[in-house]
Specification:
mainly alpha; 17 helices
Length: about 350
């Protein structure tokens, strides 16, 4: 009974991992480079873990050596899939560079050639003593290289003043999960082989819970914000964006919408939220809240002067403020006077 429960738990993780990999590779509505490599990562992991489940629960005399070879060969491509998934996420890649394709192809040809020239069935000693260790070495090297890529995010995690985005936490979770699975297999190589399979199932369902939260699911497949200093917006493009932004604010009066967000305006401009934030910071020297509040205050000043029918509270709501207190506080901070004092000076 214990074996049946373990088999069910381990097999379910492999099966779901395989289905999720197919989804990311072929059926996800966002055809992103990141989704392709995430699909490859899940596929290689599922094949490798599936090999372990097969080995554990199949009698030695009944094992098919070709299935074992496929599982070990897939392990050779886990590291590079992880590395390119993280790198494409950090760099916000829109296409796969040819160098990446060649790199992936070289590793695929290496493991395929070894499998053809030295099949596992007749060269078990070579695989068990040498090639499997080489496979784990390559996997480990790519994990280290991936950790280097994530260095700046790890620093942010250790710095309480800087908050990581959901997208950044997601790729750290993917990296940590792979590190745990790799560590479990290294331990399992010497003791308790089953630990690698169990770790994959725990990691997979932990990540799946993270993915099933709607808010997380909507964010983790967006681009990770780049550092402002890394890539400036060209002057001509910035000027064009500023003109479009001013026309948008004037014509649609988006600042009047309650709880208007950066992403809402970025969507109207057909740019990513990070680019709008960068435009405001670099070219206007303002945060998004400062930018929106200035429009709200100008509208409030106009209503205070031109309209005697509205109460001060109504003017605040008409200008886009969500409460009376926020209207008074923001107006006093920007103008230097309360709304009533500002109105009074035009009545005198």
């Amino acid at each position: 009974m214990d074996n049946q429960v373990l088999f069910f738990f381990c097999s379910l993780g492999v099966f779901n991992g395989f289905l999720l990999s197919i989804y990311f590779l072929f059926f996800h509505k966002l055809k992103r480079v990141q989704n392709f490599f995430l699909g490859m990562l899940l596929l290689m992991l599922s094949i490798r873990i599936g090999k372990s489940v097969y080995s554990i629960f199949t009698p030695r005399e009944d094992r098919n050596f070709f299935i074992l070879q496929i599982g070990l060969s897939a392990c050779f491509l886990i590291g590079i899939s992880l590395y390119y998934y993280i790198k494409s996420s950090i760099d916000n890649r829109k296409s796969i560079p040819n160098a990446w394709k060649i790199h992936f192809l070289i590793l695929f040809l290496i493991v395929s050639s070894v499998g053809i020239v030295f099949p596992y069935e007749t060269n078990g000693i070579f695989w068990n003593l040498y090639f499997i260790k080489f496979i784990y070495l390559i996997w480990g090297i790519y994990i280290v290289l991936t950790g280097v890529l994530l260095k700046h995010i790890f620093i942010k995690l250790c710095t309480k003043r800087i908050k990581c985005s959901i997208s950044e936490l997601w790729i750290v979770a993917i990296f940590t999960g792979n590190l745990l699975i790799y560590s479990a297999y290294i331990i399992g190589y010497f003791y308790l082989y089953l630990i690698g399979t169990l770790t994959f199932s725990f990691v997979f369902y932990g990540i799946l819970v993270f993915l099933l939260i709607k808010k997380n699911r909507e964010i983790i497949f967006q681009d990770i914000p780049e550092k402002y200093a890394a890539k400036k917006i060209e002057t001509s493009e910035a000027d064009d964006l500023l003109i479009r932004l001013q026309e948008l604010m004037k014509n649609q009066e988006l600042y009047k919408k309650p709880n208007i967000k950066l992403k809402d305006i970025a969507k109207e401009l057909h740019i990513i939220p990070h680019k709008l934030s960068q435009l405001l910071n670099d070219n206007c020297k303002k945060s998004f809240s400062q930018f929106i509040n200035e429009y709200k205050i100008e509208e409030a000043k106009r209503l205070l002067i031109e309209n005697d029918q509205y109460t001060l509270e109504s003017i605040g709501y008409e200008s886009g403020f969500s409460s009376k207190s926020s209207f008074y506080a923001t107006f006093k901070k920007v103008v230097g006077k309360t709304p009533s004092a500002y109105k009074k000076q035009f009545l005198e």
